Amino acid sequence: MEMRPARWDMATLERLRGRLAELKVQYFLESRIAEDNRFKEYQAAVVIQSAFRGCRVRAYMRYLNSMMTVIQKWWRGYLARKYFRDQVKTAHFIMKMNFYNEMAVRIQKRWRGYYGRKYVHNYYAWKKYLEAVAIKGHIVRKELDEYADMLAKEKVKKELELAEERKNYRARKMHYLLSTEQVAGIYNSPYRQYPDEMEFRLQRAQPLSHKERTSKKDDGGDTSDWSDCRIRFTFPTMQPLPPIGKKKVQGPFRDTAEVLQQRYKPLDATLRMATSISTVEEARGELKRQEWSKVIHDDAFFPGAALRCDWLLLGFLRRVRWVNPDVFAGFGEHSPGF
């Protein structure tokens, strides 16, 4: 603190004493103004403090948020790295298992092929068997071809014989058209160099008498329909080829003749089909007609019979009402006799 001379202090004090009244008034005014503005300044101070404290809290919250963001970032990174490591381990394990399965399948395939070729399917025996089957098939096909040729020749021969028989029968039937010495027949035309073949057949044939004329036969065989279930059919059975040392084929295979016999067996009507649908109703109607026609009342009529029946009916209805009152609930309480 700066030291001043004593005369300066006394002068200053004297000067202040001269201004004391003015200073009192000024102090009073300043105090009054301060008292008037004290509530406003208090409110302003509160606003300033609240703003400052809000800024400080918000800054602290921003700091906490930044710290939480860092913590979450590190934690999520740790979880993602852990999940990725798990996924990599799982993918590596699946890849190893697939590789092991593929190698196991290859080993099993090689082993099963070796075992089957050595113990189950003998290659050379199977080859010999197939060669034998091929030779036998060639022989069977050759025999079948010969048999088919023989059947075709027999069929042609039979058709020729049948045609020849028909021509001979026609010649015998038309013997009256034979040429005579006076009149030439229709098959011996004078405009031809040689007669027709039918003319020579008529010359060789004997005339057909009326007794030998029979009804025309049907050459188509049996015309019965297989769908008619009243006729029993017989089907030829063919013996199978001899076995060739192979196991029988498993399965529900049956003989063709047996299947056809079962399919076209005669119809056997059941009891339901043999009887009529309205048999029961007809029997009931017949019984009812007999009852109404044969019912005869021999009892003589007397006046008290009707009254006795009414009393019996009334007693029966009373017993029914006592056992089950709901039956007569709709009749009311004032029904007569109840």
From TrEMBL:
Signal peptide: none annotated. InterPro entries: IQ_motif_EF-hand-BS (IPR000048), P-loop_NTPase (IPR027417). Residues 205-227 are annotated as: Disordered. PROSITE patterns: IQ. It holds the Pfam family IQ. It comes from the Eukaryota. This is Spermatosis associated 17.
